[in-house]
């Protein structure tokens, strides 16, 4: 398991603005503007413009999280997608390499992909995104990842649960209620995973609307940091929002566009709520694992409060009910 260090955050203390600039300049790229921090807690990501007026994003990987092989596999996946003219943020090759190292920090440069936030409730946009997810998966099926993780209930579920049981973060008075409902949700989640038994393909892995930018040319996909092997529905379900009828309509629009490029097994719709359950549990464990990084208590102060865990107990009780409901289904095609 990665991230055994509760205090892994101290690694970033030495990543000062001067060191960041020195690292970038070690590639003979000279920032002209200051570094604008982008919204990332897992890694450290900054946008800047160089002396040739080119805009870049530099990403410093969290130490001890991924191996070099895992990072390079992410990079080559992005390059493969780019070769198919899929608009994905792709690492720049500088001096023959996409992954660089400076004073113990590994980092990558990307051309900056401008754009505004993607509007999930715009069905035309959603259709275009559906086309590209279909194309991403068409390309993704060509071969597997060998180094990156697989999305399984054991990896995201059991390991997260075990971490939280040992972390001391769940308030003592709420432990029984929290862990009981989480274990019930995990049991159902595993059951549904085994019933569907979906094939695993390479995925973006974390395809929520914030990882899609809307550019003058349409969608641009960013942040393959969580690329992994898993069921195709993982790259679709986070696009769905609103009540059941709205989600059904959104799903229709996405899948109709998706299936122009890639077949979709409708049985995977049964995995939407199990995947949501795993994401909820993994998120709490992620905050717990990162608590030693000073950025986390600063940005997520509520995590240390009983109220957060009370809300989680309620949310998991709702998930338990959602796992028993029939999955979203599509209208029969005429």
Mind explaining what this structure looks like?
The protein is of the alpha+beta class and 334 residues long. It folds into two domains: 14-113, 2-Layer Sandwich (Phosphorylase Kinase, domain 1); 123-324, Transferase(Phosphotransferase), domain 1, CATH 1.10.510.10. 41% of the residues lie in helices and 12% in strands. It has nine helices and ten strands. It has helices at 17-25, 68-83, 123-140, 153-167, 175-196, 244-258, 272-289, 295-299, 306-324; strands at 36-37, 44-49, 55-60, 100-102, 105-111, 116-117, 201-203, 212-215, 218-221, 228-230. The strands form three sheets. It has a five-stranded antiparallel β-sheet. Helix 3 (123-140) packs across helix 6, helix 4 (153-167) runs parallel beside helix 7 and helix 5 (175-196) runs parallel beside helix 9 (306-324). The longest helix has 22 residues, at 175-196. The protein starts with 16 loop residues before the first helix and ends in a 10-residue tail after the last helix. Mean pLDDT is 93; it is low at 1-9.
Summarize the structure.
The protein is an alpha+beta fold. It has helices spanning 17-25, 68-83, 123-140, 153-167, 175-196, 244-258, 272-289, 295-299, 306-324, and strands at residues 36-37, 44-49, 55-60, 100-102, 105-111, 116-117, 201-203, 212-215, 218-221, 228-230.
Sum up the structure in keywords.
alpha+beta; 41% helix; 334 residues; Transferase(Phosphotransferase), domain 1; disordered N terminus; Phosphorylase Kinase, domain 1; five-stranded antiparallel beta sheet; three-stranded antiparallel beta sheet
């Amino acid at each position: 398991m990665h991230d055994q260090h509760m205090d892994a955050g101290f690694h970033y203390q030495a990543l000062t603005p001067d060191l960041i600039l020195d690292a970038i300049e070690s590639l003979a790229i000279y920032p002209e503007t200051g570094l604008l921090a982008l919204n990332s807690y897992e890694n450290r990501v900054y946008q800047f413009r160089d002396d040739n007026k080119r805009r870049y994003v530099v990403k410093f990987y969290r130490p001890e999280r991924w191996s070099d092989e895992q990072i390079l596999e992410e990079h080559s996946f992005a390059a493969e997608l780019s070769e198919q003219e899929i608009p994905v943020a792709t690492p720049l090759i500088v001096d023959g390499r996409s992954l660089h190292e400076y004073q113990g920090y590994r980092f990558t440069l990307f051309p900056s992909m401008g754009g505004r936030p993607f509007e999930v409730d715009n069905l035309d946009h959603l259709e275009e995104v559906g086309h590209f997810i279909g194309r991403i998966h068409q390309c993704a099926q060509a071969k597997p990842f060998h180094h990156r993780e697989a999305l399984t209930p054991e990896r995201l579920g059991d390991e997260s649960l075990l971490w939280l049981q040992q972390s001391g973060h769940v308030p003592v008075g709420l432990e029984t209620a929290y862990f009981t409902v989480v274990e019930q949700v995990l049991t159902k989640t595993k059951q549904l995973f085994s019933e569907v038994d979906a094939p695993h393909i390479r995925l973006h892995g974390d395809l929520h609307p914030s990882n899609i930018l809307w550019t003058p040319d349409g969608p641009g996909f960013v942040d393959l940091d969580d690329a992994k092997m898993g069921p195709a529905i993982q790259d679709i379900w986070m696009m769905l929002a609103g009540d059941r009828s709205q989600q059904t309509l959104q799903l229709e629009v996405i899948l109709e566009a998706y299936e122009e490029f890639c077949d979709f097994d409708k049985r995977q719709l049964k995995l939407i709520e199990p995947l949501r359950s795993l994401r909820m549990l993994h998120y709490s464990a992620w905050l717990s694992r990162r608590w030693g990084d000073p950025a986390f208590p600063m940005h997520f102060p509520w995590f240390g409060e009983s109220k957060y865990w009370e809300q989680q107990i309620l949310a998991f009780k709702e998930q338990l009910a959602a796992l028993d409901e029939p999955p979203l289904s599509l209208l029969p095609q005429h």
